[in-house]
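FAQ: What does the model actually see?

It sees only this:
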Amino acid sequence: MNYLWKLNTASILAALLALIPLELMLNVYRISRLTGWGLDRTMLVLGVAMGVTVLAGTVLLYWFMRKRMERRKANVWTALTWIPYFVLFAYLFSVSFPITDPGEAPNPGMGFFVIGGLLGYPFYLLILNVIVLVTGEGVQKKEGLPD
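And it is asked to produce this:
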């Protein structure tokens, strides 16, 4: 049971790692209006923020999977179990902060970036899991002890 909690925690971290840059990318117009910055400055700041988020999130997820989770092949389930958490968090965000001004709606072409990113994200998680499995020492399961 303890392993299941750790697997779900890793899935939540992975979902947040996908959601935060996605929401920053989709809400450029809203952030520009709220901060009073021009679109060029907003896109530059958000681009840097997305890069930092992805880098820091990857390091955090790698550290969590290497230090807190057992070295199991079952860790690759995080490549699928992040999806329900992502949908839940995206729904909660859209309900909490609805788009009331039609001018803040994202560009129609942004959907292609979203679809491409979300289709490639499980492969990113699989690669991260393989790196952790091959290089990380992780927590070793003790024989004879229940979870």
